[in-house]
């Protein structure tokens, strides 16, 4: 790995560790391997959003050409958000693509992702299904997002109704994650979800 | 081998070709052997090109902050490499400063300021203010060769001159003691084998000699051809001249024009001491003058007569002796003199 990438990452790592946000536990970062090419980030769901109370884990891969090219970031924790794929965790954020600038750091990337959770861009979606729900059935979107936050990121809001519907599908031999994904997609309509799964 | 390189670097190759259409034509029209030679040439070019594009490991970047004594202010670090600014440049508009190597690398990818993303190109970069340079030069840095035992701590402005003479530098060349004549980096000295190195040198030079020989033969052939053609032309001209008086007049006019063109191409000169002029040049001096004349492009048909007139016994009466020259020297200012370049 290029010398510059390593030395920058090392300094950025320290920067995050010293930052105020780490004191407030709103972001966190840790090493995955000794070569500094892969890191694990964690961001707290911002307050007054359906993600509040959740902890979202991110996979950060640092390319050899860093900081001339952006780090590759992906959500490991499953999340229901218009700009994040509910299947792969891929993120649609301009600064991680064409709008990357070399002076940005891991800290600013994590903070930008936190800001993305607070302010979705449904008109530039990564996950069209979620974006559609966000725009068309916003109440349902909030419920789904809170439910996912509870199920995957340790959020506080539980929805027994959702859980029981998932349990029904599980009883039919469907994987829990698949069941949740399909039900979310079908606006928690059990009949449609079943139809979708078995047709 | 070549095919691999060609395929992976098709873009470079095409770009290289398109920069020189003449070369392209020559390649496609040349023989198989010649084409192979061109390809070898391109392989070298491509390797150089690829090395430049793919590797940023050797990029000049800022100094590691940990090598400095005490805290370094964040204002003195490069936002790209996060090291202390090395050879810094700043953007004209937003005044953000970066290492020269870092910002050039970034701008080769994206024409924006890495901090605020405003439009920025290399032409909008300029030197940083003196105060920043001064602050940087006051920082104390440990030598790059500290792992090899150098304990020096230097001001940044004296750092480069220290690096050049640092005795701990493992790459500092030392002359081989066994007498092969090579200068070897200190850390490679123990693996150095005089015979092997000399042998590879011989192989390389033999290869070069072979190439040069083919070039030489090619050129010899061309020269002979041209000589023959020239002779033919001369004969033709002579025949024309003899047979046709009008042609003779044209030829004479051309010769006169040539002399005027040559003399007006020479720079004007002023003789400061006519008395101190060498008026009886010896053979060696004459030879030198003749060479200088012909190198300056003097038309060959007047060369001999010029040389014959270079001794004072053939000079005009008013110049012919030291005495007349001293008497008449004020009038000589009216002469137009030209300088023949040469020793």
Automatic annotation (TrEMBL), chain A:
Q: Where is the UBA domain?
A: 161-199
- Record EC number: 2.3.2.23
Its Gene Ontology molecular function terms?
ATP binding; ubiquitin conjugating enzyme activity
The residue ranges of the UBC core domain are 4-154
Concerning SUPFAM superfamilies, the annotation shows: UBA-like, UBC-like
Task: Extract the InterPro entries matched here.
Answer: UBA, UBA-like_sf, UBC, UBCD4_UBA, UBQ-conjugating_AS, UBQ-conjugating_enzyme/RWD
What Pfam families does the record tag this protein with?
Answer: UQ_con
Name the active site residues: 92
Keyword list (alphabetical) reads: ATP-binding, Nucleotide-binding, Transferase, Ubl conjugation pathway
**Source species, domain of life:** Eukaryota
- Family membership noted in the UniProt record: Belongs to the ubiquitin-conjugating enzyme family.
Q: What is this protein called?
A: E2 ubiquitin-conjugating enzyme
Whose protein is this, by species? Drosophila rubida
TrEMBL record, chain B:
InterPro entries per UniProt: NRDP1, NRDP1_C, Znf_RING, Znf_RING/FYVE/PHD, Znf_RING_CS
Q: Which reaction does it catalyse?
A: S-ubiquitinyl-[E2 ubiquitin-conjugating enzyme]-L-cysteine + [acceptor protein]-L-lysine = [E2 ubiquitin-conjugating enzyme]-L-cysteine + N(6)-ubiquitinyl-[acceptor protein]-L-lysine
* Domain RING-type as annotated: residue spans: 78-117
Q: Which PROSITE patterns does the entry mention?
A: ZF_RING_1, ZF_RING_2
Query: SMART domains per the record?
Result: RING (SM00184)
One annotated GO molecular function? zinc ion binding
Look up keyword Metal-binding and say if it applies. Answer: yes
Query: In which pathway is this protein known to take part?
Result: Protein modification; protein ubiquitination
Q: Keywords in UniProt for this one? A: Metal-binding, Transferase, Ubl conjugation pathway, Zinc, Zinc-finger
Q: Which intervals of the chain form a coiled coil?
A: none
Give, as one word, the top-level EC class. transferase
The source's domain of life comes to Eukaryota
Q: What is its EC number?
A: 2.3.2.27
Taken from the record, one Pfam family name reads USP8_interact
Biological processes annotated in GO: protein ubiquitination; regulation of canonical NF-kappaB signal transduction
> PANTHER family annotated for this entry?
RECEPTOR-ASSOCIATED FACTOR, PUTATIVE-RELATED, TNF RECEPTOR ASSOCIATED FACTOR
Question: What name does the UniProt record give this protein?
Answer: E3 ubiquitin-protein ligase NRDP1
